[in-house]
Amino acid sequence: MPDKPPPTLRLKIDREALGHNWRALDTLSGKAEAGAAVKADCYGLGVDTCVPVLRDAGAQQFFVAHWGEVEDVARHVPTSQIAVLHGPLTSEEASYARATSAVPVIDSLRQARLWLEGGGGLCHLMVDTGINRLGIGIDEIGEPLIAELNIDCLMSHLACADEDVPMNAAQLAAFNGVIGQIKHRRRSLANSAGIALGGNYHFDLTRPGLSLYGGIQRSELAELIRQVAYPEAAILQVRVLKAGDTVGYNATFTAAKDMRVGVVSLGYADGFLRSWAGGHLQHEGRTLSLLGKVSMDMVVVDLTEAPELVEGDWLSVPYFLPDAAQQTTLSQYELLTLLGTRFARQ
Ligand SMILES: *Cc1c(COP(=O)(O)O)cnc(C)c1O
Q1: Ligand 1 interacting residues, C-beta cut-off 6 A
Q2: Which residue among 39, 43, 293, 333 is the active-site one?
Q3: For the chain, does the N or the C end have fewer beta carbons within 10 angstroms?
Q4: pTM, rounded to two decimals
Q5: DSSP string of 143-189?
Q6: How far apart are CA 21 and CA 57, in angstroms?
C-alpha cells in the first residue's frame, strides 16, 4: 500500500506547555518530586509525543493503569520507572512484571499473595483511605502478608481533591495514621488537584495527570497550567443553504435566511460528542456556530462570519478544558481521553 494521505483531523500538542505544566506541578509539589500519570495513552494525547517531553522536563516516575500500557511507555523511559496502578490480577501479569521490571502497585491482599507466591520483589502499596476503589483496607495493614512485601512507595488516592470538603483532611489523617504501621521507602497521596491542597498533601512523590495535559480543576492551578491539546478539523465541503433548508439528522436546524455553511470532518466517532450541539468551532478567533446535530463523521458550521473560508481550510475546536467542560457537561478527563484515533497527533 502507498503511504496514507494526511488525515483531515489533527491534534496539535504544545510540547512546551506540557513541559511547563510538569515543571509547574513539580515546583508546586515543594520538597516532593512530581511523577506523571501517563495512563490511557497520556490521557489520549499520545505516549510517543508526551512521555519524552515529561522525561526531558525531569519526571522519573510514570504511572499507567494496565500492563498492556507498559511496552509503549518503556520505549522512552527505563521500565523500573513505570508503575502499574491496577496491580497483578493474574499470575501472567505478575510474571510479566518480573520479566519487565515494571513495578506493580499492590491493591489487595489477594494481589499481595499472588505477588509473593511468584517470588515477590519491589512493589508499591495502595491503601484505601475512603475512595473505595482499589487498595487494601486500613484494617488489613497489619496482615503478616503485607509485612512481607518489599514496598517502595506507600500510596493512597484522594476522592475529592477538586473540592473543598472535609473528606480531604479525613483521608490525609487516615493516610498519616497508616504510615507508621508498615515499612516503606516513599509516600504518595496527591493527584493534580491534591497538589494544590498544600504541603501536608505532598509527602515524597506526587502523581499529577490531568493538569499535565491542561486540566484545571482548582482555582489555584488556573495561573500555572497551560492548554496543551489543540484539535483541528478540515472543511470538506462548502454549501449554500436557502431560507427554509434544514441541516443534519432529524432536521433540527432550519435556515432563517440564505447562508453559507461548512461541512467539517469531525464527529462523535472522533470523540466530539453530541453534547457539543449548540456550541461552536473557531477560525482565527471568530466563532462559527454548530448547526444541527453532530453526526458520526461530520458537523456543519455557519460560515457567515468567515466568508473567505473554502474547502480544505482548517477550523479549531475550542478545547480550553474548563470552558469545554462547561459547554458540554463532559469532564475535563473525558474531553481528553475521548479524542479518537483518526486525529493525527502532532
Ligand atoms: C489517574 C490517577 C492519578 C492522576 O490523577 P489526576 O486527577 O489526573 O491528576 C493519580 N493517582 C492515581 C492512583 C490515579 O489513578
Answers
A1: 37, 39, 85, 157, 191-192, 207-210
A2: 39
A3: N
A4: 0.97
A5: -HHHHTSEEEEEE---S-TTS--HHHHHHHHHHHHHHTTS--SEEE-
A6: 9
